[in-house]
Each structure stands twice: as C-alpha cells, then as structure tokens.
Design the sequence.
C-alpha cells in the first residue's frame, strides 16, 4: 500500500508562521465576502426582474396616472421601475401644489417639464448607485486575491528553504520539491478566490447596462406621460413604447 502524502494545505498551515496563516485567513474572508455578494445580488436581481415585470404590466393597464399614484402610495415600490414612477409622480404633485405660491422659483427651474425631468434623472442616478452595490468588493477581490496567494507562496518557499538550510541537509530533490510544491497551494487558493469574483463582476456589470437601458427607455415614456398628463391604458395591439407617443400626440393642440 502506498503511504499517504503528509504534505498539503493542513501541513502548510501547521508548519507556517503567523504571516502565512494571516494570508490564508485573508483569502478565506475574501472568498466568503465575494460569494455573499454574488448570492445577494443574484437574489435581488431575480426579485427585481419579477417585480419589475409585474409593475410594468399594472402600470400600462392602469386607467390613469392618479391610479398608479394611489397604488404606489398604498404599497411602497420594491423595484426600480416603481421607484422611478413614484419619484416622477411626486415631483409633478409637488410642482402642482407649489406652482401658485412659488412661481418665481419654479419659473427659474424651467417649469413642470424640467422639474420632473430633473427628478427622473436623479432617480436614475440613485438606481445606478444601488445596482453597483458590491461591485467594488468583487473588483477588489478579483484584482488582489492572486497577489495575496502569490505572496503566501513566496513566503512559504522562503521559510521552506530557510528550514532546509538550517537542518544542514544536502538539499536533495525530494527535500526541496515537497515544501516548494506545498507552498504553491497558496497561489492556487488565490486564483480560486479571484476567478469567480471576476466572472461575477463582469456578469453583474453587463446586467447593469441592460437594466440601465430598460430604465432609460421607461424614463422617456414616463416623462412624456407625466408632462402631458395623458391617460394610461392601451389597446391589445399597442405596445408600451407606442402608448406615450400616442398620448403626447393627442395632447398637442390642433
């Protein structure tokens, strides 16, 4: 029977000093943090897609913006499209309430259209910041974990060679290759931590771009509806993108 190999990660941690153990703990914390962010982001985006699709269906089937406002007042929106619609409707309501007594200030602000447009743009910026939550951590882990692992390998090789020299051995191949190969485990751990983080970062960034495009399209439609005060609702053959354009044309004076 072949003897089991005494070398490995457990032997490396047992034989290394505090620096080597600290580097291993850092890699472990990086891995736990990155996988936590990935799990939270995956769950949040899945819920956001489900809730966003449901809200858009209710939004375009609503009879008026007032009905949408009542729904948003009763139930706080939990996804980006609802929050954007709520911000736009609140901006319009604020303008309608204060336009008589604060005309000079609102005239400088550019009127209803510009007032609502600024509110929508601020909402888009807030959604972009919310979507980027955790991406900095993933980028940092993906960029630094390989170097932390490499540092652990260099530190392990250094101590292995120091130990061989202090023992006064002849430095045969098995005496050198075993500890050096064991130290390379730290480099492998660094890559194992970094690769999932980089892949998740790229996936989330692409998802953010797609979501930003959808929000931007909805913001243009929402701006047209809120500025004109047109009714919602559409026929079976009418798409969401056609609804605000038709409403804007019907609101224009002959």
Sequence:
């Amino acid at each position: 029977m072949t003897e089991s190999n005494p070398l490995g990660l457990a032997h490396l941690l047992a034989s290394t000093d505090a620096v080597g153990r600290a580097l291993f703990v850092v890699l472990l914390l990086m891995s736990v943090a990155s996988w936590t962010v990935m799990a939270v982001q995956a769950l949040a985006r899945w819920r956001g897609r489900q809730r966003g699709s449901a809200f858009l269906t209710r939004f375009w089937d609503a009879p008026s913006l007032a009905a949408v406002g009542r729904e948003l007042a009763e139930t706080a929106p939990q996804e980006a499209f609802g929050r954007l619609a709520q911000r736009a409707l609140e901006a319009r309501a604020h303008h309608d309430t204060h336009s008589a007594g604060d005309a000079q200030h609102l005239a400088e602000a550019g009127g209803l259209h510009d007032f609502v447009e600024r509110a929508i743009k601020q909402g888009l910026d807030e959604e972009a910041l919310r979507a980027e939550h955790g991406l900095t951590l993933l980028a940092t882990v993906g960029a630094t974990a390989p170097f932390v692992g490499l540092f652990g390998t260099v530190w392990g090789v250094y101590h292995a060679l120091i130990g061989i020299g202090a023992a006064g051995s002849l430095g045969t191949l098995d005496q050198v290759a075993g500890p050096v190969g064991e130290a390379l485990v730290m480099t492998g751990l660094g890559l194992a931590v970094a690769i999932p983080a980089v892949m998740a970062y790229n996936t989330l960034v692409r998802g953010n771009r797609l979501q930003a495009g959808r929000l931007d399209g909805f913001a243009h439609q929402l701006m047209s509806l809120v500025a004109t005060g047109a009714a919602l609702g559409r026929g079976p053959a009418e798409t969401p993108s056609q609804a605000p354009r038709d409403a804007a044309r019907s609101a224009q004076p002959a």
User: Anything to note?
Assistant: Residues 17-246 form one domain.
